[in-house]
Specification:
- A two-stranded antiparallel sheet has the order 1-2.
- With 541 residues, the protein is an all-alpha fold.
- The chain is built from 26 helices and two strands.
- Among the domains are: 105 residues, no CATH class; 65 residues, no CATH class; 62 residues, no CATH class.
- It is elongated and about 120 Å long.
- Helix 9 packs across helix 10, helix 13 runs antiparallel to helix 16 and helix 22 crosses helix 24.
């Protein structure tokens, strides 16, 4: 990893004031409390008091002393001058040339407890924090630089030079990457190493691609044959038989980062990597490949089903347009019959003869049959058109149910039972728990028996909805996994807890942190209460 990773603009901002300071920053960092004012008030001259206040607030805000202590924004000078009772801020120019400015820096360090970066324990504590962040996340080096700077300022450590802090962060990241490579390399045995290295060689099918390229190549089309190939890819990945028990203690974000690199880098570039990094890259790639392959297959399934149902709906619309004239004709006949039935001047016993005379019994029955055949309910599933696409479903469904192992929460259990019935096709009829009102008239015949073809389409319709809701999920997966899988409990949380807490600057035991907060609150309350009688603003509204 390069040691110099900051841009020129980031280097120039290090240890320097921004162009504009917000009112919140002015109130937080450039406000002098009673102890500060009492100590600064002992200085005799105006420029000495103002200069001391500038240096004190500068090191609080920036974490370092400026070469020119007066090179601060005008708003800071004005805010501090009003607090230390200096009327003419032009006197600050005399402080820049005085010898007292150097004595003040030493005094501020001793009085307020500022330390150097090279002091004992500083590098260790910061390094431990950065190690935890590097291990549990994939932050860029510049982000780690900002975190390190904030940590140093918060712990009253004077900022080192840009190059020193850059080199320190680079060493931490390199150490964590080496640790990751070693752990991943230890997860595989000698036979698995040989099989992983073989992935980088040209395949034996006479082509020019390596096995590695073939495995990471996902589907590019949306069709039943493409879905079948995507499912066969999942089967091929599982057939490699490479299990990584040691990778369970490694954060998934680190494995995913290595796998993303493996998914985009050329095989020649991977071959040129050092042996430890090359093996770790292959291990992470294979570890994440099954999840990626299953996600790709389910993506194709989702888009294929969406296309299947959309085309059925479109075909039904075209079919209805062709029969619109017949529907209008039947509706006109029924309208004539309804006019007779609604005529208040006709007695009830004369209604039937009148309808027969005007419309005709046979014509009325035919019109009623036409309306029943041509109209659709509001939630129609267009099963008539879906039936014509049954061959498409038959092509991929058996392999889908064999290769993809679905799991679910309690809401998706009826759907899992339906998929199990479709896979094994036992003699007994499936449960109709997944059949909603829209599908009921197609799935169940007049005698109450279940139509297997309609039940298949109903199950696929429900599967598409359940996958989007995550009522049904698969494992391993990145996009279709169980939302609860990321919640660590029991022994897993006990193992990850120290590193996670360290990355958040917290202790694994909450009692010391809560006790420190309670003590701080108590001390602050007592201090405010003690100064309340002399507070000039206590009676202000």
């Amino acid at each position: 990893m390069p040691v110099s990773f900051l841009t020129l603009a980031q280097r120039e901002r290090h240890g320097r004031f921004p162009e504009v300071l917000s009112t919140i920053e002015l109130a937080r960092y450039f406000y002098l409390d009673d102890d500060d004012l009492e100590w600064i008030g002992r200085k005799r001259r105006d420029f000495t008091r103002l200069g001391y206040a500038l240096q004190l607030t500068t090191v609080r805000f920036l974490g370092t002393f400026l070469e020119d202590p007066t090179g601060v924004p005008l708003a800071v000078v004005q805010a501090l001058a009003s607090q230390v009772s200096v009327g003419d801020i032009a006197c600050i120019s005399a402080y820049r040339d005085s010898e007292q400015r150097w004595r003040h820096t030493t005094e501020i360090r001793n009085r307020y407890g500022y330390r150097e970066f090279v002091d004992k324990g500083v590098r260790f504590r910061l390094g431990r924090r950065l190690c935890a962040m590097c291990w549990t996340g994939t932050d860029r080096p510049s982000v780690l630089f900002d975190h390190a700077s904030a940590w140093l300022i918060g712990h009253k450590v004077l900022l080192p030079g840009v190059t020193i802090l850059e080199r320190f962060i680079a060493e931490i990241r390199a150490r964590m990457e080496t640790r990751l490579w070693v752990l991943l390399g230890q997860s595989v045995n000698a036979d698995q190493r040989v099989r992983l290295e073989k992935l980088l060689t040209i395949a034996d099918d006479g082509g020019r691609q390596s096995w590695f390229d073939k495995l990471r190549k996902g589907p590019v089309r949306i069709s039943a044959p493409a879905l079948v190939k995507a499912l066969e890819r999942v089967d091929t990945v599982r057939a490699l038989g490479i299990t990584l028990p040691g990778a369970s203690n490694i954060p998934q974000s680190r494995l995913a980062s290595l796998a993303r690199f493996a998914g985009t880098a050329k095989v020649t570039a991977i071959n040129r990597l050092p042996a430890a990094r090359r093996m770790a890259t292959l291990v992470a790639f294979v570890h994440c490949l099954e999840a990626t392959a299953q996600d790709d297959a389910l993506d194709v399934l989702d888009m294929l089903l969406r296309d299947l149902f959309a085309k059925a709906e479109q075909a039904d619309r075209k079919s209805r347009l062709r029969t619109l004239r017949d529907l209008d004709k039947a509706a006109i006949i029924l309208a004539k019959a309804c006019c007779v039935l609604l005529d208040p001047d006709l007695p009830d016993e004369a209604l039937r003869p009148e309808v027969d005379a005007i419309v005709g019994r046979h014509l009325l029955a035919q019109a009623l049959d036409d309306v029943n055949a041509l109209t659709r309910p509001p939630n129609d599933v267009f099963y008539v058109e879906l039936q014509k696409r049954q061959a498409t479903v038959t092509r991929f469904l058996p392999k889908l149910l064999r290769i993809i192992q679905f799991d679910s929460n309690p809401a998706g259990e009826p759907l899992l039972q339906a998929l199990a019935w479709l896979r094994h096709r036992p003699d007994n009829e499936p449960s109709a728990d997944i059949v909603n009102k829209a599908w009921l008239r197609h799935v169940k015949n007049e005698d109450g028996a279940i139509d297997p073809a309609a039940f298949t389409f109903c199950a696929l319709d429900q599967l598409q909805t359940a996958l989007r809701r995550r009522d049904v999920f698969v494992s391993p997966s990145w996009r279709y996994s169980d939302p609860r899988a990321g919640l660590l409990t029991g022994a897993e949380w006990d193992t990850a807890r120290p590193m996670v807490c360290r990355s958040l600057a917290l202790t694994p035991d909450p009692k010391p942190t809560l006790a420190a907060l309670a003590l701080e609150l108590d001390q602050t309350y007592r201090a405010v209460a003690a100064r309340l009688p002399e507070n000039p603003g206590k009676n202000s509204s």
